[in-house]
Give the backbone structure.
Amino acid sequence: MSERLSVFKTYKLFVGGKFPRSESGRVYEVTDSKGKWLANAPLSSRKDARDAVVAARKATGGWAGATAYNRGQILYRVAEMLEGRRDQFVAEVADAEGLSKSKAAAQVDAAIDRWVWYAGWTDKIAQVVGGANPVAGPFFNLSTPEPTGVVAVVAPQESSFLGLVSVIAPVIAVGNTVVVIASEKAPLPALSLGEVLATSDVPGGVVNILSGKAAEISPSLAAHQDVNAIDLAGADAELSKALQIAAADNLKRVLRPQAVDWSADPGTDRMTAFLETKTVWHPTGSLGAGGSAY
Amino acid sequence: MPTVPSNGNEAAERLASMADVTASDGALRRFLHGLPGVDTVGLEARAAMLGTRSIKTTAKAYAIDLAISMIDLTTLEGADTPGKVRALCAKGVNPDPTDRTTPKVAAICVYPDMAATAAEALKGSGVNVASVATAFPAGRAALPVKLADTRDAVAAGADEIDMVIDRGAFLSGHYLSVFEEIKAVKEACRREDGSAARLKVIFETGELSTYDNIRRASWLGMLAGADFIKTSTGKVAVNATPANTLLMLEAVRDFRATTGVQVGVKPAGGIRTTKDALKFLVLVNETVGEEWLTNTWFRFGASSLLNDLLMQRQKLSTGRYSGPDYVTVD
Amino acid sequence: MAFEYAPAPESRAVVDIAPSYGLFIDGEFRDASDGKVFKTLSPSSEEVLSEVAQGSAEDVDAAVKAARKAFEKWSALPGAERAKYLFRIARIIQERSRELAVLETLDNGKPIRETRDADLPLVAAHFFYYAGWADKLDHAGYGPNPKALGVAGQVIPWNFPLLMLAWKIAPALATGNTVVLKPAETTPLSALFFADICRQAGLPKGVVNIVTGDGTTGAALVEHPGVDKVAFTGSTAVGKAIARSVAGTDKKLTLELGGKGANIVFDDAPIDQAVEGIVNGIFFNQGQVCCAGSRLLVQESIQDELLDALKRRLSTLRLGDPLDKNTDIGAINSAEQLARIKALADSGEAEGAERWAPACELPSAGYWFAPTLFTNVTQAHRIAREEIFGPVLSVLTFRTPAEAVAKANNSQYGLSAGIWTEKGSRILSVANSLRAGVVWANTFNKFDPTSPFGGYKESGFGREGGRHGLEAYLDV
């Protein structure tokens, strides 16, 4: 019996809950760490980035307005879906990063657990970073964190999946929407993640995944006036500086690249980087007229 | 008796056009509850800010004389006697025996049974007789008793009647009953010759408890025909405050803008010092302005305030601080 | 006779301004390296108050070096000891508050009522608040033993000179940083008096350095490679330039920039308090406030009533000598700012908005602008979009809560907003929908050291005040 010929997957972008090809029609060759061809990935253009921002913006109201409990349920659902496709991701990560099967499995397991971690954070972060402020006057004063809005992310280049999840999950956990540029040389786990998100009740547009050259796509995201923040995790020093300069045009919140051990406890930093603090005042005063008889 | 500027036919018409809001308990309630709310902190902050105005030299001299002329010099004690009332009247007419340029007070305010004594003592002085009435201060009597109380006082020579509203009825939401009672008392203020005593309506703001209630009571009183709205009897823990007086000034301002009818304001109780009085005059000046800065439209219900004003007045004219031995004890 | 308030000027004798001041570097006053000086004026009279050193890049370098030298010991000091220095400073500010209030009024032009009742109490309170944090940083929610950043370069504006200094210096010192602060060119004096307060408090030399000068001095400070932290309050344009200049460095940056705050008045508002809030929102400090409620959004159904009340109230504002205790509206801070206000107000008229100001006599000397409001303003007008930073209110209308929120958020800025309604659920839903860092409901322009302050969007990032304000000065 001859060996069955496998069915290749056409990897596509994930934008607005749909799976478009790059509008440019371009693709680039993705290989494993030994140079073996794995697939052709879409080579996103600036217009793809623009479309992704439109989709992300459209999704902000519904996602930020969803209850934190609901967002937590959805993030947990992502973990559930990933668990079911664990083997696929282990294989993709092993290929992408040149890891042994067990090491790749550790990466995928950590990524799944990361979704669970952030699923639990959605309805707790506000209590940790917000609160009542005891002002010296007859006022009720409350600080609450709110999502910054649309966040562009240059995903880590080396950690194609755990790193990716580690930058996407915190951004959306707190109610932002995201346009992420996947690892340039290892985009396939990211593009497959889109398929998981699409079946996990994540509303379309909340996560938008582009593949291609970060240096080509990211400047237009950094300069985009309707993007509120940018995470430069996967940008090198030169690109990072250029993107920061572009980001100053509308004073985007910038998370600079830093050395991160993606397997370590992530803390809250990647959530708080994309939260705004809103402080609301309201008079309290006495129950009645000043010094009333009651 | 000071001349009350005529409000004119137009005002009468505009007021009449509001008759529908007092047509029923429900209509009146809807109207009063439709008035803009009052934010406690904001109101008190505004009153406090105006309290920081610094009134010096010529402005202070002007304000002290104005304040003296606005006093309803008051004695409302169980122990009042004709002798005490006559002494107070003499003081009101000639507050500072050492300085004849000192203005006289606006009125002497007494219980109804002392109105005749006061009228006798004040005859021809230009100082009015004000009498409390309507079972002052609690107002807990039947309407006929209240009306008789009022008529007695007017008959005894009272130029002005200070009535109390039925706070119990107001707090239980029986606005129309309060309204009707004020109207009836207003009617009882009429003299046989067709003239009438001016009616001051006391809300006892300390018992109304909320600023929203004070605004509602102000409009209720004005719609019922009050010539003055007055904060307090002076007989409860909390009486006139800058904030409740400011609120009532806003009410008379808005009432005139709506109806064309001008109504006076009288804070009473707890105003004891010149500094306090000046703060109230600043409230008047910056809320309703000059038109209310006369004793026709603004009064202080007070007793010990007068001596402090006199001591401050002496300080301004002599340059040295006065003492209680240099003003008369009443 | 009307009740005219006689002049009630606060005494100038309480403050002794020297004819000239140097830079405060490493605990000493010194001349600028190149000997350059500039004059600081009283904007209400154009009188020269003093001559101040123009700090050069060399001076900035010396100040940063002094701060760096002082950092090691200062940051290693037990928090409780740093706290005591800050408590001392707070107390001395309280003791000298009348002197500082008069000084601030002279140099800035704002009314003494504001410096006395708002600026100075808040300055002292800010130092008290952050003093208490210095030995409690382990409990602030930033992990155990959070570290200071190093040398903070701080550039502050002229609208609240000493208060902005407090907002910058108090949290920086509490967390163990040392600072180089550049006060605004037109209002350097209170910062120099603060240097003297540091001396009285026995603060170790080099912990606080004050370098006076203009924009070039500020740029030298921001760009200095020895600075670990940049904190700026001022215009959005300069904020963007600073964000570009720190790109590619490790400098931590916080920016508190411009605004075009919407003050939304619904038909069920407590009208009299709303009028006060509108006045306080736009005429406090002559409207030279980044969080000013410079756009009034009024529900159409009460537009006439509200505008009548507002105009009546504006007619009672007292404009004049800032040292007079009864003055509500003082001078505009500088000729340059006055020119900008005039130009934008003129554009309002040119674009078809209707201008109104109460009858108001302006003094002949100094920089003055009458409280002004514009009606018939649309979202497209410059005066509805650009920050005027002056006593000019743009009035727009709306029909529904959704329209109010849409118009309020339709701005590049997102610093402040106001909501006036007696309906609780509307306050909460509108407050949730507004993209602004500070929302005042049924009040406006309230500040407190415990309350985080800062913007969304192009109004900047980072928060000053409260526990949140520590983050800007910690390596977290």
Notes: The domain at 19-322 of chain B is CATH 3.20.20.70 (TIM Barrel).
